[in-house]
């Protein structure tokens, strides 16, 4: 199925990605080809109805205890912006 | 002349570093015929000699390796010699090693330094295994050729004009060309088995839930597993021995007992029931690949296996289901790269612009494409039509495999439909995706698989055969693959030329 330019714009906005007009055209073709290919999954509907959980799968829990406390400095020094022990970001609202 | 240089001289005169396996190197270490330091030096020498040509490595950890080798020698001197102590290896650059780069071959993580060790790295460190560096991959492990690496592709050591496969292409090249004795990779749809097939080595993917994913940069969390690339089946089994088992840091690893895999290595296949799924011998596949794989299957019969044709009727849905489930998980997993906490950050006039600018500049074409597909397939109005359908198809595919393993011990297939392709040959995304058509089904079903060399094409390119076992039956894979490897007795030597 063909994806429209409007769809490409809508998805790009959701994904927080910007594209040039030429890139959008190329994406439109590539995504349409990929979606055409995966369209064969439509046949599956008749064969399997409900998604069943894997009977072997169990929830595994551990106590929420810090075992080897990491040094916050290790994490903070990777941040692009920083003020004291905080990560600094641009304002969310202007 | 001191003992150290005598040892090196001995090896240089009588043995090539490139001929060593984990097993032979570890015997030399135990007998004090070589030190871990000497092994690390030989590995570095090899890397310096040939890696300009091959580009297997994104980072060579020279200083760290020499330090680790020193500790390994100390451990050996104190009698603490484990099966992997002092063995030089490489890790794919999407596996975290504390203090070391982990780019995932993306510009968005160019300056990132890992803040902790992956579980597999921690276990190798405990045995004083020596990490020589981090290897190239397709960006975020998305691809089948390393052509999607933001740092340039790796080259196939059997023909430098061809791709090594991917995404763990750098790891496959490093092992096949004799730079290291084994390497770690990750396998989400074939990323360990396919490059192993293209480079003439052993590539092993465990059952989902058998080995910890802690510290692997997430691609598709419900499909990713760590894997091993090695020169022999026995070597792969000895590395996996360490990786198998439950980890409290990965709640998807199951508390099942781990057998001693070395006890299962066989020399014949008497009593083994082997199925050959007809859906894996498709029209349009390379005739030479088919012939080589068929002759390996014949060899299994000669070794005593009973072989018959079988069917995995929903195989044709595997790739389609994969290219919905995986992108949906990618779009969620890669949302963390937003320029706020680590990695690339591109300025903008407000927070939203920082997100846009960082992601647009930092991600390459393939991650963007997959983020777009995944966002589309999981967005309102399309989720039922795509994701839900793909999960239902997954259930059918999984059942195909579990049904087959009620009748058979193993399934055998080609690893890929064709040998290594030329750079640039698969320029549209869909034809590249089809390179994984025989490997993705295993990830969709969660079952383990192993690719091993089955022979060569006339042009001198390796052909891989893939063995598949039921969930948590890895020992059957190692057992049969070991017997087949002995019987085939291939000694594939890369030419390192175009």
What is the CA-CA span between the terminal residues of chain A? 40 Å
- Largest β sheet strand count, sense and barrel closure of chain A: 2 strands, antiparallel
The shape of chain B, in one word, is globular
Derived structural class of chain A: mainly alpha
What's the average pLDDT of chain A? 86
> Counting H and I runs of at least 4 residues, what is the number of helices of chain B?
16
Largest sheet of chain B: 11 strands, mixed
The ordered string of helix (H) and strand (E) elements of chain B is HHHEHEHEHEHEEHEHEHHHHEHHEEH
Q: How far apart are the first and last residues' alpha carbons of chain B, in Å?
A: 41 Å
Can you walk me through this structure?
The complex is a heterodimer of chains A (94) and B (498). Chain A is mainly α and 94 residues long. Chain A has 3 helices and 2 strands, in the order αααββ. Chain A has helices spanning 5-15, 21-38, 72-76, and strands at residues 82-83, 86-87. The longest helix of chain A is centred in the first third of the chain and has 18 residues, at 21-38. Chain B has 498 residues and is α/β, with parallel strands linked by helices. The model of chain B has no long low-confidence stretch (mean pLDDT 95). Classes of the chains: A mainly alpha (94), B alpha/beta (498). At the A-B interface, helix 1 and helix 2 of A face helix 10, helix 11, helix 12, helix 13 and helix 14 of B.
What are the SSEs and their pairings?
The complex is a heterodimer of chains A (94) and B (498).
Chain A: H1 5-15, H2 21-38, H3 72-76, E1 82-83, E2 86-87
Antiparallel strand pairs in A: 1-2
Chain B: H1 3-14, H2 22-30, H3 36-54, E1 57-60, H4 62-77, E2 88-92, H5 119-126, E3 130-135, H6 169-176, E4 182-187, H7 193-199, E5 202-205, E6 225-230, H8 233-243, E7 273-277, H9 287-302, E8 306-310, H10 318-333, H11 351-362, H12 365-377, H13 384-407, E9 410-414, H14 429-433, H15 440-445, E10 449-456, E11 462-469, H16 474-488
Parallel strand pairs in B: 2-3, 2-4, 7-8, 7-9
Antiparallel strand pairs in B: 1-3, 4-6, 5-6, 5-10, 9-11, 10-11
Helix pairs in contact in B: 3-4, 8-16, 10-12, 10-13
């Amino acid at each position: 199925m063909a994806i429209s330019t409007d769809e490409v714009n809508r998805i790009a906005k959701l994904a927080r990605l910007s594209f040039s007009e030429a890139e959008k055209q190329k994406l439109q073709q590539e995504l349409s080809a990929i979606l055409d290919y995966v369209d064969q999954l439509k046949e599956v509907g008749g064969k399997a109805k409900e998604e069943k959980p894997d009977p072997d799968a169990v929830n595994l829990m551990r106590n929420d205890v810090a075992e080897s406390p990491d040094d916050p400095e290790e994490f903070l020094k990777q941040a692009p912006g920083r003020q004291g022990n905080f990560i600094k970001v641009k304002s969310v609202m202007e | 002349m001191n003992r150290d240089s005598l040892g090196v001289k001995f090896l240089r005169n009588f043995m090539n570093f490139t001929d060593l396996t984990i097993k032979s190197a570890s015997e030399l270490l135990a007998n004090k015929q070589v030190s871990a330091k000497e092994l690390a030096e030989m590995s570095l020498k090899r890397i310096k000699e040939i890696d300009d040509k091959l580009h297997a490595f994104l980072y060579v950890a020279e200083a760290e390796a020499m330090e680790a080798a020193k500790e390994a020698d100390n451990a050996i001197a104190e009698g603490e010699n484990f099966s992997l102590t002092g063995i030089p290896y490489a890790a794919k650059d999407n596996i975290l090693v504390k203090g070391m780069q982990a780019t995932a071959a993306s510009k968005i993580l160019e300056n990132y330094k890992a803040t902790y060790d992956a579980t597999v790295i921690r276990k190798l460190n405990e045995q004083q295994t020596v990490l020589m560096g981090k290897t190239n991959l397709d960006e975020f492990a998305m691809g089948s050729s390393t052509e999607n690496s933001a740092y340039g592709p790796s080259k196939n050591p059997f023909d430098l004009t061809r791709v090594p496969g991917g995404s763990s292409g750098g790891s496959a090249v490093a092992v096949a060309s004799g730079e290291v004795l084994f390497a770690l990779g990750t396998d989400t749809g074939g990323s360990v088995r396919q490059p192993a097939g293209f480079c003439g080595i052993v590539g092993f993917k465990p059952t989902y839930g058998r080995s910890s994913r802690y510290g692997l940069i997430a691609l598709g969390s419900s499909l990713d597993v760590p894997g091993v690339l090695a020169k022999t089946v026995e070597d792969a089994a000895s590395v996996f021995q360490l990786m198998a088992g439950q980890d409290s840091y990965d709640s998807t690893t199951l508390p099942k007992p781990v057998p001693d895999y070395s006890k299962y290595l066989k020399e014949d296949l008497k009593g083994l029931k082997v199925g050959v799924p007809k859906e894996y011998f498709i029209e349009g596949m390379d005739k030479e690949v088919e012939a080589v794989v068929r002759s390996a299957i014949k060899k299994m019969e000669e070794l005593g296996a009973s072989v018959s044709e079988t069917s995995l009727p929903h195989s044709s849905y595997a790739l389609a289901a994969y290219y919905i489930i995986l992108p949906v998980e990618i779009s969620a997993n890669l949302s963390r790269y937003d320029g706020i906490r680590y990695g690339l950050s591109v300025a903008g006039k407000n927070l939203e612009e920082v997100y846009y600018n960082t992601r647009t500049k930092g991600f390459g074409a393939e991650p963007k494409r997959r983020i777009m597909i995944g966002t589309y397939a999981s967005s309102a109005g399309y989720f039922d039509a795509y994701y839900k359908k793909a999960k239902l198809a997954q259930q059918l595919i999984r059942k195909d495999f579990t049904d087959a393993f009620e009748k058979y011990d193993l399934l055998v297939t080609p690893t890929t439909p064709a040998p290594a392709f030329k750079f640039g040959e698969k320029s549209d995304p869909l034809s590249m995706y089809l390179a994984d058509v025989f490997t993705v089904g295993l990830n969709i079903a969660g079952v383990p698989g192993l690719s091993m060399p089955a022979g060569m094409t006339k042009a001198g390119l390796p052909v891989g055969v893939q063995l598949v076992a039921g969930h948590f039956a890895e020992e059957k894979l190692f057992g049969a693959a070991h017997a087949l490897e002995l019987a085939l007795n291939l000694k594939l030597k890369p030419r390192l030329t175009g």
